[in-house]
Specification:
Layout lengths: L17 E7 L3 H14 L5 E7 L6 H9 L5 E5 L6 H10 L5 E4 L11 H9 L4 E5 L13 H15 L14 E4 H7 L10 H8 L6 E5 L14 H15 L6 H26 L4 H24 L7 H33 L4 H24 L2
Parallel strand pairs: 1-2, 1-4, 2-3, 5-7
Antiparallel strand pairs: 4-6, 5-6
Helix pairs in contact: 1-2, 5-8, 8-9, 9-10, 10-11, 11-12
C-alpha cells in the first residue's frame, strides 16, 4: 500500500478532476489507510479528498489535518454543533470546485478501486454512478449481522417503491456524480438523515442517466457501524418528505408520531397509577409527567438526532420542554372549548382534534426554536 503522505509533486497542485467527500465521525484510525488507498487507486488521476468531520471526540479532524500538512490533496471540514451524514455530504459538495464529486464512507468498507470505473462512466455520459452491492459482481457480505442485513434490505425495498429511477441499491453510500447536477437539485434536497443518494435520486429530473457498477462491501476494520433502527426511521421520514414534496416535513411528522407514543404512555401509566390506589387527578398528573419525559427523550434521540442535547444542556432542555408542553396543553384545551361552543356545535371529536392540532404545532414550533435550535 502506498504511503499516506507522499512527496508533493507538481501534479498534486493541479485542480482536482474529482473530489471524494468522506463524511465521518470517530474514524481517526481509518484516515491514514484511506488516504493511502485512494493514492494507490487513483494513481495518475487529479483528485482530492475532503473529510467532513462532525467534531469527533476521537480526534478524527486533527488526524486529517496532520496528513494534510504533507499532502495538498487532503482537506478537512470540522463541523461544530452540526450533525448528520446528508448535511455533511452537502457541505463537502459545496466546498468542491471539481467537475465530479464522489461520496464514500470513512470506514474502508467501500472499495476505492471502483473509483476509476465510476470516473470512466461519468466521462462516457452518466450523470450519477452508483456503486451497487446488488448487481452481478457485487456483494453485501461486509454488512455484519442479520439485523443490519434486515435493515438494509427493508430500506432498499421501501426506496424502490417510490423511486422514479431504477436502482438496485438505493441505500448505497458510495456514488459519484456531476457537480453541476448537484448544484441544480440542491434547492430540492431535504438534507436530513443518512442516505443522501435517495434524496438526490428523488430530487433529480427523470431525464438524468444513472448507471451502476458492482462493488464488494468489505468488513469494517476499525470504529463502529452507524447503521441502526434510528437510521431506518429517518430514512422513512425522508421518503415521506420527498413523496409529499415537502408539504409534510419529516421532522414535524417524527415529532407528531412521538406525540402519539406519548399518548399511549400517558394512558398506560394512568391505569397503573389508578390500580396503585391514586385518584383520577393524581393518576393524570403522573401519566402526563411520564409522557412528557418519554416524548422529550424520544425527540432528543430520533426527531432531533442531529441536534441531540447532552449533559447540562439536556437537563435545561427537559425543563423548557415541560414548560412548553404545559402551555401547549393549555392551548389545546382552550381551542377545543372554543371550537366546541362556537364552531363544532357540540361535536366533541372535532373540537378535540382541533385542540390536538394546535397543541402539537405549538409544541413543535417552540421546541424547534428554544430547545433544539
Amino acid at each position: 500500500m502506498a504511503k499516506a503522505s507522499p512527496t508533493v509533486s507538481a501534479g498534486m497542485l493541479l485542480p482536482a478532476r474529482i473530489s471524494i467527500i468522506v463524511p465521518c465521525y470517530n474514524e481517526a484510525e481509518n484516515v491514514v489507510p484511506l488516504v493511502a488507498a485512494l493514492d494507490a487507486a487513483l494513481e495518475g488521476e487529479r483528485w482530492e479528498v475532503i473529510f467532513v468531520d462532525d467534531n469527533s471526540p476521537d480526534g478524527t479532524a486533527e488526524r486529517v489535518s496532520k496528513v494534510a500538512n504533507n499532502d495538498p490533496r487532503v482537506r478537512v471540514i470540522k463541523r461544530v454543533g452540526r450533525r448528520g451524514l446528508s448535511s455533511a455530504v452537502i457541505e463537502g459538495f459545496l466546498s468542491s470546485s471539481a467537475p465530479y464529486v464522489a461520496v464514500m464512507d470513512g470506514d474502508l468498507q467501500h472499495d476505492e478501486t471502483v473509483l476509476p470505473k465510476m470516473l470512466a462512466d461519468l466521462d462516457a455520459g452518466s450523470d450519477i454512478v452508483v456503486a451497487s452491492r446488488h448487481v452481478e459482481g457485487g456483494d453485501n457480505a461486509g454488512l455484519a449481522g442479520y439485523w443490519r442485513h434486515l435493515l438494509s434490505d427493508t430500506g432498499i425495498r421501501a426506496a424502490q417503491s417510490v423511486l422514479p429511477h431504477r436502482l438496485t441499491d438505493p441505500m448505497s453510500g458510495f456514488f459519484a456524480m456531476r457537480r453541476e447536477l448537484f448544484q441544480a437539485v440542491l434547492p430540492k434536497l431535504s438534507g436530513t438523515g443518512f442516505k443522501i443518494l435517495l434524496d438526490l435520486a428523488m430530487s433529480a429530473p427523470k431525464s438524468v442517466k444513472i448507471t451502476e457498477v458492482p462493488f464488494v462491501f468489505r468488513p469494517r476494520l476499525a470504529g463502529e457501524s452507524k447503521l441502526d433502527v434510528v437510521v431506518l426511521l429517518q430514512f422513512a421520514m425522508m421518503i415521506l418528505d420527498k413523496v409529499t414534496h415537502g408539504w409534510l416535513p419529516s421532522r414535524f411528522l417524527a415529532f407528531a408520531l412521538v406525540g402519539l407514543v406519548g399518548v399511549v404512555v400517558n394512558v398506560a401509566v394512568m391505569q397503573i397509577a389508578r390500580l396503585g390506589g391514586m385518584d383520577f387527578s393524581q393518576s393524570q398528573l403522573v401519566g402526563t409527567a411520564v409522557a412528557i419525559l418519554t416524548n422529550f427523550l424520544l425527540n432528543n434521540r430520533l426527531t432531533y438526532h442531529d441536534r441531540r442535547l447532552k449533559g447540562a444542556k439536556m437537563w435545561v432542555g427537559l425543563i423548557i420542554f415541560f414548560a412548553v408542553c404545559s402551555l401547549g396543553a393549555a392551548a389545546n384545551i382552550g381551542v377545543a372549548r372554543m371550537v366546541l361552543h362556537d364552531v363544532g356545535h357540540g361535536h366533541w371529536d372535532r373540537a378535540s382534534a382541533a385542540g390536538a392540532v394546535v397543541g402539537v404545532v405549538w409544541n413543535y414550533a417552540v421546541s424547534s426554536t428554544l430547545i433544539w435550535r
